[in-house]
């Protein structure tokens, strides 16, 4: 039988493997964590089905692109430039790559941005035009448009106060005008007064182009600013954990496995991990809103939208991101892209698993070869990798991905069967894509089983190890920055941190999928580095938290909040103090507090005055945050966090409020959108 779409293949698979005998065998293999066995018996039952792969994507549509361009022209004529620019972006995505229509729409969009006063967006469109036109052999059909673009580019930087850049593009435009004038004189005039004719022709062309220049409204863009830099880790880089600070180290425990811990006292706000993803994917809702490669928001005023050269589905923020994505992974998924976004398939993170395998098959020169080490690892695929054999723990090394927990044997056999069926289907897709671009990769057909095992392995890994890629959007009514998911990624260093319902770190997304981990409260030497897997003690009761964590991650949470059964609701005006000498809880009397361990006494008024003065810092910080001055607010909050850690016993509502405010400030310095 020949299967064109995944649902057809899945229905066939369900019929073939519906027998009790098969399901009993599969369940036994699932319970033992035998991935090769699960794939092997599934392939035997399916009989190596004939799956016809290809053309499962939305290609270019020139006719519709022209219609949209006309709509944009009408919108622009009736003074709706924002609407016109949005329509032109859709038209550009549908236009055949590097065609005359494509360049005409791009120039029209650049003009629309300039007219709106979005100077950086216009400048980036001009740069995009230059980058793409340079790859076209015959540029004659766009000679005049190139002069228009250069003059527009010059005007953008002139208005932004970058005179040297402006002059550079103006000089290049004048050079092109001279070439055009010379070409016309050579074609039309052979007389003795050639120089005079050339001068006249050049002046006429200059007048022609100046009359075509776009007028703009008052500038709404700010002057050029330095881009936000990704933070660096506190202190030195860890000798073994290449993405981590030397303030933390890797430990191992028989009960909870690997974990991270502090080797020295760590203050709030310290950068502990800067991790790059091994692989990443984009949520379907973000495909038109965020760059497929670096996940930058496409809704910001200084960002342009660049379409894929082959499909109309995905978008980028620059030609560079478009090229990187194509070389690294998108060319192997573009023509089958729509397979990955069927509702049922999205639940298994099949695209992220697919990209993980693609990344593992590459060498550093982006040349596909049969990675024998990868094949060997997945031919057995039972025993977890002992990372102690590694010289360094590198996030870009597939061994660190393979070492992550899969919980294969603990997973529901029905879930494993669903993943196994999808793994076989996408292994076929992968072989099709490899052969489409690399005919020499035909040998991959004999590796169908191993590729399916690798995909199954990574689907399971992702289920309990993947993290969200987020961007933060400020609600102008509440003045709160809310995180919005735009994708998912595998971060092998961050995955070493265990869960607590009262975390001491927080993760923030930066461009290119980079995640930065910072401390949000004081972490004493030897204490564990604790992340939150989605269940905080102030949001759900202990029993529900434990139930949800056990269902997804297969462990019973024994964190401080669960073990002590901290209440969800904490009093706003009640403070329990701790000894500043030994950090143990104190008993309160009417006038003093006394440590329950070392018996040291102190006047309660001293604690209250210290706390009162420190709370003023938090309130001042809140005012600054409300006005959008997060960089000024953060130092005040970090000082307050250190103070309350020294004098208040946990849990404390004041500590929770402070940590939430710190997270808001850190949100503002990471990936944002509007």
Automatic annotation (TrEMBL):
The keyword Zinc applies. It is found in: Cytoplasm; Nucleus. Pfam families: SET, zf-MYND. CDD domains: SET_SMYD4 (cd10536). InterPro entries: SET-MYND_domain_protein, SET_dom, SET_dom_sf, SMYD4_SET, Znf_MYND. One of its GO terms (cellular component) is nucleus. Keywords: Cytoplasm, Metal-binding, Methyltransferase, Nucleus, S-adenosyl-L-methionine, Transferase, Zinc, Zinc-finger. GO terms for biological process: methylation. Its main location: cytoplasm. Residues 246-534 form the SET domain. GO terms for molecular function: histone deacetylase binding; N-methyltransferase activity; protein methyltransferase activity; S-adenosylmethionine-dependent methyltransferase activity; zinc ion binding. Residues 291-334 form the MYND-type domain. The keyword Zinc-finger applies. It catalyses: L-lysyl-[protein] + S-adenosyl-L-methionine = N(6)-methyl-L-lysyl-[protein] + S-adenosyl-L-homocysteine + H(+). Protein-lysine N-methyltransferase. Monomethylates PRMT5, modulating its transcriptional activity. May also act as a histone methyltransferase. Plays a critical role in cardiac development. Acts as a key epigenetic regulator of gene expression during cardiac development via its dual activities as a methyltransferase and negative regulator of HDAC1. This is Protein-lysine N-methyltransferase SMYD4. It comes from Ceratosolen solmsi marchali.
């Amino acid at each position: 039988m020949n299967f064109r779409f995944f649902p057809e293949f899945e229905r066939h698979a369900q019929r073939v493997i519906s027998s009790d005998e098969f399901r009993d065998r599969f369940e036994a293999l699932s319970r033992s964590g035998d991935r090769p066995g699960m794939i092997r018996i599934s392939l035997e039952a399916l009989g190596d089905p004939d799956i016809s792969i290809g053309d499962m994507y939305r290609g270019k549509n020139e006719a519709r692109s022209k219609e949209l361009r006309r709509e944009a022209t009408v919108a622009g004529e009736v003074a709706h430039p924002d609407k016109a620019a949005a329509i032109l972006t859709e038209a550009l995505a549908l236009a055949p790559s590097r065609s005359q229509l494509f360049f005409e729409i791009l120039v029209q969009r650049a003009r629309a941005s300039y007219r709106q006063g979005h100077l950086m967006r216009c400048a980036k469109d001009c740069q995009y035009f230059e980058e793409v036109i340079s790859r076209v052999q015959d540029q004659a059909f766009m000679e005049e448009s190139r002069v228009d673009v250069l003059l527009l580019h010059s005007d953008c930087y002139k208005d932004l106060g970058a005179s040297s850049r402006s002059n550079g593009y103006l000089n290049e435009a004048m050079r092109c005008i001279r070439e055009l004038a010379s070409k016309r004189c050579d074609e039309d005039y052979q007389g003795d007064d050639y120089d005079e004719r050339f001068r006249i022709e050049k002046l006429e062309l200059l007048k022609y182009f100046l009359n075509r220049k776009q007028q703009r409204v008052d500038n709404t863009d700010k002057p050029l600013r330095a881009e936000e830099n990704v933070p660096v880790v506190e202190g030195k880089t860890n000798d073994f954990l290449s993405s981590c600070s030397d303030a933390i180290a890797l430990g191992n425990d028989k009960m909870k496995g690997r974990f991270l811990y502090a080797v020295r006292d760590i203050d709030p706000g310290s950068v502990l991990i800067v991790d790059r993803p091994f692989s990443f994917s984009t949520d379907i809702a973000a495909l038109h809103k965020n760059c497929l490669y670096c996940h930058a928001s496409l809704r910001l005023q200084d960002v342009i939208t660049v379409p894929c050269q082959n499909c109309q589905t995905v978008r980028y923020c620059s030609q560079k991101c478009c090229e990187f994505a194509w070389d690294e992974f998108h060319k192997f998924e573009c023509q089958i892209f729509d397979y990955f976004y069927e509702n049922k398939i999205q639940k298994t993170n099949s695209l992220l698993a697919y990209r993980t395998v693609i990344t593992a098959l590459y060498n550093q020169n982006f040349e596909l070869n049969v990675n024998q080490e990868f094949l060997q690892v997945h031919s057995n695929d039972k025993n977890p990798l002992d990372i102690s054999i590694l010289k360094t723990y590198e996030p870009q090394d597939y061994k660190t991905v393979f070492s992550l927990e899969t919980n294969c044997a603990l997973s529901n056999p029905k879930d494993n069967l669903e993943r196994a069926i999808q793994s076989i289907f996408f292994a076929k897709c992968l072989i099709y894509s490899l052969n489409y671009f690399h005919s020499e990769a035909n040998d991959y057909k004999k590796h169908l089983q191993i590729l399916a095992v690798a995909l199954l392995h990574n689907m399971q890994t992702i289920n309990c190890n993947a993290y969200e890629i987020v961007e933060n959007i400020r609600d102008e009514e509440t003045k709160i920055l809310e995180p919005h998911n735009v994708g998912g990624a595998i971060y092998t260093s961050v995955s070493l941190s265990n869960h607590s319902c009262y975390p001491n770190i927080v993760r923030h997304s930066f461009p290119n999928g980079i995640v930065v981990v910072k401390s949000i409260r004081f972490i004493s030497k030897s204490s564990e580095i604790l992340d939150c897997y989605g269940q905080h003690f102030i949001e759900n009761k202990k029993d529900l938290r434990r139930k949800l964590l056990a269902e997804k991650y297969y462990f019973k949470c024994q964190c401080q909040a669960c073990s002590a059964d901290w209440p969800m609701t904490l009093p706003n005006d009640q403070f329990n103090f701790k000894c500043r000498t030994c950090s143990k809880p104190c008993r309160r009397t009417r006038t003093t507090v006394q440590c329950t361990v070392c018996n040291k006494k102190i006047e309660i008024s001293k604690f209250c005055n210290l706390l009162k003065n420190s709370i003023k810092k938090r309130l001042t910080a809140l005012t600054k945050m409300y006005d959008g001055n997060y960089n000024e607010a953060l130092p005040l909050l970090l000082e307050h966090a250190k103070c309350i850690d020294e004098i208040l016993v946990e849990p404390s509502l004041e500590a929770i409020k402070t940590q939430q405010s710190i997270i808001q400030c850190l949100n503002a310095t990471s990936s944002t959108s509007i």
